[in-house]
Amino acid sequence: KAGVTQTPRYLIKTRGQQVTLSCSPISGHRSVSWYQQTPGQGLQFLFEYFSETQRNKGNFPGRFSGRQFSNSRSEMNVSTLELGDSALYLCASNKGGSEKLFFGSGTQLSVL
Amino acid sequence: TQLLEQSPQFLSIQEGENLTVYCNSSSVFSSLQWYRQEPGEGPVLLVTVVTGGEVKKLKRLTFQFGDARKDSSLHITAAQPGDTGLYLCAGDKAAGNKLTFGGGTRVLVKP
User: Fold this and answer.
1) What are A22-73's pLDDT values in tens digits?
2) What gap in Å lies between CA A112 and CA A83, rounded to an integer?
3) What b/e readout covers A25-42, taking b as 16+ CB neighbours within 10 angstroms?
């Protein structure tokens, strides 16, 4: 059974650009959550999607957005990139309840 | 400000020694989870504790949830180099999959 797949693995962008990250959950999982991990702030919740609807949202500015497709795959978008957006972006999936969360290996975003 | 405070931030020990990592909060959580993360990978769930006072064992790892469900500890007995990694605690307030993570404890077990 394939795990959570995130693409791309690494990304380098410059300030002001926008970026789209992709996450394919484990087959059968309907919930996809996104987290940002930085050395200074640790892991912080961005948002969660369940059945194509945003179910939870963290405290990030509107430049961070996401969506989920009917096959449960999810994308997150960051517009007008800032240096501080450099981070490891992790997505996690489960069936939608309080069961175990499975994380992907992340996308390492560097903003220059 | 972290709602979940982990201590210590870094721990370096010799193989065979014991170690304890703490996770403290002023908030009550419906459950608390412990993860281990290795470089270049996402966190992997080790255990979930739900009931106040609960103790769970996973081979040489012992996890405890405080009676008031505000704090937890992870104890590793006879640590091995394979235990090296970033240990993260995460609290769940029964709000879907919105977890609050602690800052992490980086553990290095030297052979």
Assistant:
1) 999 999 999 999 999 999 899 999 999 999 999 999 999 999 999 999 999 9
2) 6
3) bbeebbbbbbbbbeeeeb
Choosing among B97, B98, B100, B105, which should be mutated to test the A contact, i.e. which has the most A CBs within 10 A?
A: B97
Residues A13 and A16: their CA atoms lie apart, in Å, by 9
Using CB atoms within 10 A of its CB, is residue B22 exposed (0-12), middle (13-18) or buried (19+)?
Answer: middle
Write out chain B residues lying below 8 Å of A101, CB-based: 33, 45, 97, 99
Q: Torsions phi, psi of A84, nearest 5?
A: -70, -5
Residues of B in Cβ contact (< 8 Å) with A106: 41-42
Q: Which of A34, A17, A14 is nearest to A25 (CA)?
A: A34
CA distance B87 to B74: 9
The residues pairing with A37 across neighbouring beta strands, listed in sequence order, are A43, A88
- Is the CB of residue B5 less than 8 Å away from at least one CB of chain A? no
Which conformational region is residue A16 in: left (phi greater than 0), alpha (psi within -120 to 50 degrees), or beta? left
Q: Which two tokens stand for residue A12?
A: 């380098």
Residue for token digits 């609290």? B91
CA distance B70 to chain A (A): 19
Q: CB-side exposure of A37: number of CA atoms within 13 Å?
A: 26
Measured CA to CA, the distance from residue B17 to residue A47 in angstroms comes to 39
pLDDT tens-digit profile of B30-48?
Answer: 889 999 999 989 999 999 9
